[in-house]
Request: fold
Amino acid sequence: MRRTFGLLHLRQLRRQPLRALLAVIAIGAGVTLSVAVVIARSSLDYSFAAYSEGLAGAAPLRVSSSYDHGSIDTSTLAAVEHADGVQAVVPLVLSVGQVRDSNGADHLIAIIGADCRAQDLFGASGCDAAALAQRTADDPPLIGRGLHDIAGADAILRTDNGDRALRDAPVVSDLDRLNRGLVVMYPLPIAQQLFGRPGGLDAIFVIPRPGVGVDTLQARLEGLVGPQNKVTSASETSDSVRFVSAQILPFLLLISLFGLAVGAQLVYNTMTLSLEERRRELAVASAVGSTPNMVLGGVLAEAAVLGALGGIVGVVMGALVSRPFISTLSRYAEQAAGIHLQVHVTAPNLVLGLSMGVLASMLAAIVPARRAARLDIAGELAARGRRADAAPAVRARRAIVLVSLTLGGLAAAWFSSRDGALEPWQPNVMLAGVLIAFVCGFALPPALAPFALRLIARVPVLNRGPARVAMGTLVSETRRTSAVFTAVGAAVGMSFTLGSVLPGMAFGAEQLTQQTAYDRVMVTTLEPNNNSGVDAKLSPALQAALGDVPGVEGVEHVYHATADLAGVGSVGLSADDGWQRRYPLLRGVDATEAIARGDVMIGPALARDLSLRPGDSLDLPGRFGTVRMTVGGIWQAPDQLGRSITVPAATFVALVGPRPPDWVLLRPAPGVSPVELARRVRDLRLADNLRIFDPAALSIEYAANFEEFVKPFEVLSRGLLAVTFIATVSTLLLASVQRRREHGLLAAVGMPPGDLGRMVLVEAGMIGLLGTLLGGLSGLVGLEGFAISSATLTGLDIPFRLSIAPLLVYGSIVTACVLAGAALPAWRTSRLDPVVALRQE
Reply:
């Protein structure tokens, strides 16, 4: 059997290296996109784990709060320190800071506040507690080498209490093992002062006495730290890593699988055409003793070899392509914890890429392999079975089924999105409906192409010369070009969907501005989105100065916190001490009435997770004891993907303690417009990092933030363009090899070489144009699915807004790629020697 496999299959790969290479590149291109997403996830996990393990040092346990931003009270530190079995405790402040380098660029870095007890973690010695106690907030902090290298001599550290120069900051090499040295370390009391944590801690690391079991001590401490705190492994990452990955990676992985599906389709085409040429060889082998199972196994093994080589190519390319994804994830990680991600390729990544290539290739080869195993031996040997690889009769059943499933999926998604999707079953049905519509919608181009081709073929201009032959080929042999239609439809559809999402995002940004800062001026020192964890906010002095600006009737403060709640995950907590936001109300009373009577507003995802309705009670562990809250209403708040709680300002302090506002809203005095008030604040130049937004400017800022979310998907769409190019080259090259006799006959009866080449280009042009139109239909399905599900899946309602410009732009690009991919097959066809072509047959 090994000899038979070598003669029939491995030798075939050596005899046709170009064909094998195209199949390897096709499957490698598909594997590349999926592996890139997986590497991005492993890089995220590795970077967070490395930072946590570096902090933990010799401590096996860690006490942390359910809330962020220094919500462990000092009374908890005393309880842990005096617990039976505890040898040492290390209290820390852990935060995110912003550094302005000498060139004016901003960098998010990790902040650590510690005292001499940190020696028990890091193993250093020589800390002088008395000298440390003499240091003030004006003294420079310790910094890592990584920060020193990027910051420069005139760098400034932003804090919640004003700027601090880093000119004379000592560089400590021990900090380089944390976050690549992008770290600032202050004495513990100063860190609490500068970063808005009066009497608060972020973590307490615990070292047990010798002979005390870690599990035993953990159970003991859990009874001492209170319900608002938790005791975990010291190296465990927080819920922020899961939240960061949940926002984007599942969508990226789903889309990347389209590239893999296209690669598998190309392997299918390769194996089909290759086996068609080898029918007589396989018949001879069967006649001399090869069994159907041997033929089947040999073909699958041949596909596995191609898939393994493609998997290797995909892993190598995936490590390079992953960088744009990691860059986007790093932005979220920096905002959440100050952690900068680095590319980390693991052995499981390599194994997964290789396995994906092999599995996709073997699955694609099953149908051709089964056909080869069921050959009519006598007919093939008598030359009765030799035929072209024409498609079977075109049937409408497949197209009808796909259209029905697409419309049914959209209908199910719409039905399950009603009333805010508050019932537990609704998101699951919605996701299933969107996935069905998405997958079936992107399968429509190859299914509808035969019917569209038959209609287009009736156009008079296409009924003469090379165009007529080209259209006849496309109409009769659609199986050969199905992979190209799949690739073109996926590339155009994805690009069209993404391009049309942007106008919807702009409209969503306008709505969000009206809901969060209506007729007010937002003032902040940070971007107004996803920066709650960054401690570089408005200082008290700056807030007071804003209240004195002429034309300001009032200053309203907006506070945010993040809670890690058991059974729910990351939950956003917010409070306003002035005007209440105006998110769409789903159930109960509006925010103004609810907050006025001391109740809370919750987001739809939290209401669904905890089965809460207006009037229900909700107990949350607070920094100073459990706080019972009554749900006043459920609204479409986008914070934390709809898992949010908006509370009265006094309740916010009771839960998490005092902290600086994320931003302030300036309420204009009568007769002063927001635009005029924003101009007055800018003219005063109160701080060089002050960001002032009137409503129109805030809408633009929100829209720009939302577009950052789309960038990784744009990388994927460009990857699909590359797959389209490969699909065209491989399919048309292989088809030209299979149709050598046909092309030889055309040349023999008088078709000029130029017309032979134009015939191939007409085929490619029709594939590009028709694929663009059908891809636009797929894009409409994807856009509608996204609009229906956006409020539930992302927390933000992105309405359907159609834009034809992306279809025209990307359709032109894809068509150009298809024509470029057809250039080589067209050139080879035009140079065909009819005598040689007919003699070989």
